[in-house]
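Holo prediction. Input below; ligand is adenosine-5'-triphosphate.
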Amino acid sequence: MLNFMKGSIFSRRQSEAVPREPEQEVKVLAIWGSPGSGKTTVSVRLAKYLADHKYNVALLLCDMTAPMLPCICPPAELECERSLGSILAATHITDILVKQNCITHKKIDHLTMIGMLKGENVFTYPPYTQELASELIDHLRDIAPYVVIDCGSAIANDILSAVSLLEADTVLRLVNCDLKSISYLSSQLPLLKDQKWDADKQYKVASNVKFNQAGEHIEQVLGSVAFKIPHSDELENLALAGNLLGELALKDSRGFRAEIAKIAKEVFGV
Ligand SMILES: Nc1ncnc2c1ncn2[C@@H]1O[C@H](COP(=O)(O)OP(=O)(O)OP(=O)(O)O)[C@@H](O)[C@H]1O
Ligand SMILES: [Mg+2]
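Structure of the complex:
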């Protein structure tokens, strides 16, 4: 599997990359990092932040091993059940195909989501190519002014996440304040470096930072980071209840909400 991937995505020639216009504004943000670091949580809450502020946002959930839609809100709050798999099963991607397979939320008007449904896995649909994944990202740019992509950690065997990472305008690279998380990133980053991945387009983020990890300790372990997203018990409870899009009202979540607002301002300028 790894070799197969090395022969495809991770061997793309640099000359094929289309240079981005320097003045182009950030539209596509990929959120990536070590396993369990909070990628899905941060993606969902950033998308919700934009939607709550009346900006249209598309949230792409790449996880095909554990479809995330069932964890985001109660099924009754979704308009319909459509799947990312139906998009990736096509020979070519069109705006209409993408729009037909977007899932909207009954109460959050400005949010549209694309992901795998409960019970589906990577074998539910035919295999897709790197080119098709790339077409999807391109079409998402037309669907919404802001696109947030929740990538899987394991880029070596997840085409959509790998392509998202390479093609996003900006990347948040999440890491927890522990050695396992750091070790994971050190093993994956060489894959991206081989791709001449533009390391300048990423922000290092310390995620789910617990009270006892705050302060200098983080910088000692992780080096300098652009953002520190604090842990929130209330958010953890929302996640346990399968309602990551729920409202955060308690004082304990203030730090988390403030950091999400800070990221939205820095990355999207909103
Ligand atoms: N800021 C936070 N406050 C409280 N809990 C958090 C926070 N960030 C993440 N978590 C919790 O950590 C766990 C992992 O989070 P999440 O599923 O978002 O990580 P992930 O990086 O998407 O994981 P995976 O690699 O499995 O896709 C979840 O239980 C989530 O509720
Ligand atoms: Mg996840």
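Confidence is low (pLDDT under 50) at residues 1-8, 11-23. That is the main takeaway for now.
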